[in-house]
Amino acid sequence: MPSPSQRETPYLRPVGRCSVRGGQRDEIAFSLLKAGRAVGHDARRRRQSMNQTLTAAVLFADVEGSTALYERLGDAAALSRIGPCMARMKAIVVGGQGRVIKSIGDGIMCLFPNPADALRAAVDMQIAQADRDDGLALRIGFHAGEVILRDGDVYGDTVNVASRIEEMAKGEQILTTGPTVAMLPEYLKHGVRRVGQIDVRGKELPVDSYEVIWRWSEDLTVMENPVTQQPLPNARLWLRYRGREHHLSCADREFTIGREPGCDLVTPQPRASRLHGRIEYRGGVFVLLDLSANGTFVHFDGDREFLLRRSFVPLRGSGRIGLGLSTTGAGAEEAVEFRCE
C-alpha cells in the first residue's frame, strides 16, 4: 500500500507493483502517472489560451462568375485572369491593417481590427478591379462582431453573417449590416444606404443590409437611411482657397474644382486633375465627388483624414479638402477650407 504522504499527493493513484531494480517499484509507477496527468493539464491549458475572443470585422470577397469563366476559357486562361485579381485583393488587405485568413475557391476571407478598415479595403478592392479590363467583377460583404480565433482560423456567428451578406452581393457591390454601420465613424456612415433585410441561417430575425457606395452614379437612388445627414433646406457652403472665398447656396447645383481654367475653383497644384471633382447640392446636403486620378483628401474637424477616390461624401461641419495632396504637412497650404452653414 502507498504511504500516507503518497495518498495525499495530487495527481497520484496506486497502479500496482512492477519489478524494477533498485527497489523503486512504487515510486516509478507514481511518478509516471504524475507526469502524464501534468502534461494533460498543461495541454488543456494551452488549448484554452489559443482560443482568443475579440471584436473584429470579417470580410469575404469573391470573384463573381469564376466557375463559368473556367468553363468558357479553360483552366489556364481563366487562372491567368483570376490569379492577379486574387493577388491584388490580398495585397490590399495586408496594406489596410487586415489579415488574410484563407482563400476559398476564387475568394478570400479576411479579418480586420474594425469595420472602418474593412470598408476602406473593400472600396480599394473595387476601385483596383474597376481599373482592369479583364471582365472580372467582385462581390464583397463584411460584418463586425465577436469572433473566436483558433489555430489561425476564425469562428462564430459573425463569420456566418459575413458569409451570408457576401452571398447576397452582386458583382461590383459591397454589402454590410446595420450593426456594422452603427460601429462606423460618422463620416463613413454617410457613404452607405439601406437596401433591405436578409434572412440568415440560424437567426430568428432578418438582418438589415446596407450597401457601401464606392462610386458615384447619376441615377443613384439613396433609400431611407437612419444614419444619413439630415437635409438642410437653406444650406450654405463656404469655401476658401489661396485667400479667395466662394459661397454656395442650395441654388448652386454644381461647383467644379480642378486645373481646367473653366472650373469654378481653379488650382495650379500639379497633383490635381484638370477636372478634379465637383460639389453638388443633392437631397438637402452638399456632396463632394472625386473625379480625379490621385484622389481627394477630406479632413472633417474632429475626425481623422481619409482619402476619397472616385466616390463621394456629404460635407458637414467644417474641415479641409486636399486636391491630390494630404491636408496635413506639406499639403496644408494647398488645402481648401470649407464650412457648412
Q: What is the total number of structural domains?
A: 2
Second rung of CATH, namely the architecture of the largest domain? 2-Layer Sandwich
What composes the largest sheet? 8 strands, mixed
The low-confidence runs, each spanning 5 or more residues with pLDDT under 50, are: 1-15, 20-39, 218-231
Q: Any idea what the shape is?
A: globular
Q: What class would the helix/strand composition place it in?
A: alpha+beta
The helix fraction, in percent, is: 25-40%
Radius of gyration from CA coordinates: 29 Å
Write down the CATH topology of the largest domain.
Answer: Alpha-Beta Plaits
Output the keywords.
disordered N terminus; 341 residues; globular; Alpha-Beta Plaits; 19 strands; single chain; alpha+beta; Tumour Suppressor Smad4; 6-stranded antiparallel beta sheet
Protein described:
The chain is of the alpha+beta class and 341 residues long. Helix content is 28%, strand content 33%. The chain has helices spanning 4-7, 25-50, 66-73, 75-95, 115-130, 157-168, 178-182, 186-189; strands at residues 52-63, 99-104, 107-112, 138-150, 153-155, 173-177, 192-198, 207-212, 236-241, 244-249, 254-258, 265-266, 277-282, 285-290, 296-300, 306-308, 312-314, 318-323, 336-340. The strands form 3 sheets. Strands 1, 2, 3, 4, 5, 6, 7 and 8 form an 8-stranded mixed beta sheet that branches. α3 (66-73) runs antiparallel to α4 (75-95) and α4 (75-95) runs antiparallel to α5 (115-130).
